[in-house]
Amino acid sequence: MKNETPLTEHESLNIITSMIQNAKASYHDSGMSAILWGLAVSIASLLVYVQITLNFTFPIDPFWIVFIAIIPQIYISLKERKENKVVRFEDAAINAVWSVYGITILLLVMYANIAPAVSKEFANQEGWQLIKHYINGSKPDAEMYPFIPSLYSLYILLYTFPTMVTGIAKKFRPMIVGGIISYILFIMSCYTSFKNDMLIGAVVAIICWLIPGIILRSKYLKQRKNNV
Amino acid sequence: MFKDLDPILHSQLRLAVMSLLISVKEAEFTFIREKTKATAGNLSVQIQKLKDAGYIEVNKQFKDNYPLTTCSITKKGIDAFEKYVKALQSYLNTDKK
Hints:
The complex is a heterodimer. Chain A has helices spanning 9-24, 32-53, 64-68, 70-83, 89-125, 151-170, 173-189, 194-227, and strands at 86-87, 130-132, 142-144. Chain A is mainly alpha-helical.
C-alpha cells in the first residue's frame, strides 16, 4: 500500500471497510482450551460417577485431573499469546471473564471444603449438633456432618456462566446452545442425587466446551490450511 | 475536494492503519504490515506521523530477544477517526443529492 496517492471518498470508504473486515477475520480461536477443559471436567465427573456407582474409591480424587489441567492451560495460553499478533476488544473482555471464573471456581472449592467443618465447629461451640435420624429406625442416630445440598449443581451453574458470555460475545452458536441446554440441566440437577449430578456435570462439560472446542479446532485448522 | 477532511487521516496507508486499529485493542507492527501490504520503512514513517498527532500509542518492548512493536489507538485517535467518517458520509450524501 502506497501512501500519498490522492483518495476519493469511495476509496476512503473501501479502505476503512476492507481493513475492519481484515482485522475481524484475522483471529481464530484454536479451540484447544475448550477441548482441554471439556475433557478434564467430563472425565473427572464421570470417574466420580463410576466411583459412586461401583462403590469403590480411586487412590486420588478424580477432580485432581481438573487441577492438573491448569499446567497444559498455561502452556496453551502462552503459545496463543505468542502466535496472536493482535488483541481484539472482545477477546480481552472474554479472557477477563474466564480468569474471574477460574478464581471463583477455586474459591468455591475452598468454600465447599472449609465451610462445613467451620459450621460444625460453630455449632459445637454453641452446644448443638446435627443428627442423622433414620425414620424407620433401621440404624441408630448418628452425628451428621453439615453439607451443602446439591453442591455440584452450583458448579454446573458456574460452568454455564462464562460459556454463555463467550457464546453471546463471539456470536458462537454452539456455545450459546450448550449454555441454554446447561441451564436446563442445572434445573434438572436440583432434583437429582449427587451421583446423577456428576453425570449431568459430565454432559454439561461436553456440550459447553468439548463439542464447541472441536468445532473451533476444525475451523482453525481449516483456516490454517487455507493460509498455507 | 476534501477541504474538511483531516489531512493526517486522509492518506491511504495512515487511514488503513487507523481502520485496523479502530477495531482491535492492540496490534503488532508485523500484523499491520501484513494487512496493509506496506513496506516496513514506509509503515514506520506513517506510524510515527500518527503517533506525533496523538492518534496512536506505540509500545516498544522485547519478546524472546526480538524487538516487538505494538500499536493501539488513543481516545484522540478514535475521535478523529469518527469525525473523518462523518465528514466522508456527508460528502457521499452530497453526491447522492
